[in-house]
Structure formats: C-alpha cells, structure tokens
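seq:
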Amino acid sequence: MGKTQGNKTVFKYGKLLYEAYAKYELIKFHCDTPLKFPWRRPIKHMLRSVLQRFSAHCRPLLAKQSPPIAERTQRYTILINKIIDGWYNRYSEKTVAKVGPQMACAYWLLRCAAEFRIKGSKEFISTKARLKSLQPGFLIEEIDLTDSCVSGPGFKHLRLLDSIKIVHCVHCGWVNDDGLATLMFNLQSSLETIEIINCGSISGAGLVQLQHLKKVKRIRLHNLPLVRDEEKKIVLDVLRIRLGGSCDVSYPDPT
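struct:
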C-alpha cells in the first residue's frame, strides 16, 4: 500500500470514528438517560453507541436529519455491525476444540466486555488476567452482558454449556430477536433466571421465545422500547400460561 493510499485509508476510518462519536454526543444530549461511555474502552463503546441511535429514543432524531446524513449513517452502521459480528463475536470451532467450550466462552465474553461468574465463587471475572487463576474444569454459572457488544453470532459459544443458570442482559443494543432466540435455544435446559432491561433491539416477537425455557424460575423485563403496549400484555399472557405458576414473570411499566 502506497503512502498516499494509506493516508486516505487512515483519514477515511478516522472520519468514520469521529462522526460516530459526534452523533453519540448528539444522541446523548437528546436521550432521557445518557448513554454510558467508559474511556477505558473508547473504541468499543464508540462503535456500540452507533447502534444505540436506532433505538426508540434515537430513530425520531435520525429521521429529522437530511437524507444524505441518514443514508451515510446507515452505511456506517452496517459496516460496524459486520465488525461486531465478525470479529468480537466470531465463533471458532478450532478454539473450542483446543481449550474447551467453557474457556472458549470465557474468552468470547471478555472480548466483548462482558463478565461471568463460575460455580462456587461470588466474584465476577472481567479481565483476561483473572483467567490464569481459574482451575481446570471450571463451570460458568452466571453471565453479565451489561453494556457489552455481545451479539447473536456469539451465542454459538453457549450451545455446549449446560452450567449457565443466570443471564443479565442490560443495555445490550447488539442483541436482537434472532440473538435472543439463539440464547434461549442453547440454554433452554439450564437457565433459571434471566433479566432483559433497556435493550433497544428486542421486540415482543423475541420475548415470546422465553416460553421455551424448561427450568426458568424468574424472568425480569423492563424498559424495552420496541415492545408496544398491546404487545406487552400478549407477552405476559403467553409467558404466564406456558410457564405456569412456577415462574415469576415481572414486567413493570417504565417510570
């Protein structure tokens, strides 16, 4: 690559990141709840903030922009989606065969800025340095996806895990209905508690997938912009009928 071409490439992606951050600041100003932007992972959360523009808070604001800006933003978002799905949430069968499904899942969660807790421990692991202290044969029991860039393709890591009992899905803008369906399918025989809060890409069609959980005891739903009021009642009725009285389903109105 020549020097001129290299400079153009650097300028192109530098401009992309700058515009993403500028739009993040614009959306943060208009949203009721400011988006989190920890500087210890600036690039990752900058990319994550782009998708947040398409949540219920951000779509009306984007619609008011001129068509060229809206179209360019959509193209950038498609590109960033490919980066998130193809890199951060990539699934490698070679890695699973080499280190085992539990360790491969741990690598994926930490790569996406998520946390997890192993069976027999009360502390969450959030850095790769902590992986060295884990004993062989550890089992992941609880995962916290709060403010992470976990998306649907990454949930393939869960299909060989039957030890996960608790999942926290909070502020997960990359998780959509298809991703939630994959999560439910892989953990339907082990999951006991799930929280889905402030996820702007999950609709009522995705929530009804929770009915396939066989051992679930507690479901907590809150502030899901894509779920309309009429859908909310349908979701609650379906879950309470299919899961019976053994599961506590909570879906309070947003305050």
